[in-house]
Amino acid sequence: MAATLTISEPVARPSATQTPSEDAAKSARVLLLNTLAFAVCFAAWMMYGVLITFLVEKNVFSWSKSQMGVLIGTPVLTGAVMRLPVGMLCDRYGGRIVYFILMLAAAIPMFLVTFAQHYLHFLLAGLGFGLAGASFAAGVAYTSVWFPQKRIGTALGIFGLGNAGAAATAMFAPLVLQRLTATDLDRWRVLPQIYAGLLVVMAAHFWLFTFTKKIEGGGNASPLRRLDPLRRVRVWRFGLYYAFFFGGFVALSQWLIPYYVNVYTMPVATAGFLTAMFSLPSGLIRAVGGWM
Hints:
CATH class: Mainly Alpha
Largest sheet: 2 strands, antiparallel
Order of helices and strands: EHHHHHHHHHHEHHH
Helix content: over 70%
Strand content: under 5%
Distance between the termini: 47 Å
Number of helices: 13
Radius of gyration: 20 Å
Structural class: mainly alpha
Strand order of the largest sheet: 1-2
CATH topology: Growth Hormone, Chain: A
CATH superfamily: MFS general substrate transporter like domains
Number of domains: 1
């Protein structure tokens, strides 16, 4: 008789001593910190849109528009490519530990931007801190195990509010740069230090005040078996939709700033404010979409 292999979906193991109110409180705390962590990661992920535009506008570096485009797009590329392996790691080890390590890992190359002197330095650092963009995969995985199926849409919609991190960077990073470089233009190097510090502080708070959700069967499947969903056409179809819609959002969140500066000769701060007006509604509408 042929044996059949059944792989069950990971199921959270409830605690025998935990009351429903305690579980709800933990779920709410996890969702709050998950959302804040995603906002910080998203803000860090979008930093180059402001910083690279500022450096070129102030003639700190004389890069062409195509070189700017590569630098601005590099972190986005890393974040997009790494979402699949990060999601697989979450299935294997759980979202909490993966999310924590991801923030710390992104903070290191972010801090190294401080020492960048040449184009290649910025390119390599961008490839590194682009890991922050993969936080979406970790956050979705970690949020999902804390809520029942009937509430998961609302929970993930609230988590999606972290998209507002793009608006935060667009609005406040130019003002911070303006203040930092008022007397010394080279003090732009403090900005990536601030972002690196935020990532480390957020990672510490996330680890200290969240909980590990025990998963049964989460580590049983082989890496190849975890890729089974890629055989389904609808996965690729929805991925294509996501590439157009979310990819367009990320592209505009990055490129509207240099566009406003180059075409309308706006100050970076004004361009950032207008870009934030584009980015902010995305986070707000995600919560509504999740609830619907």
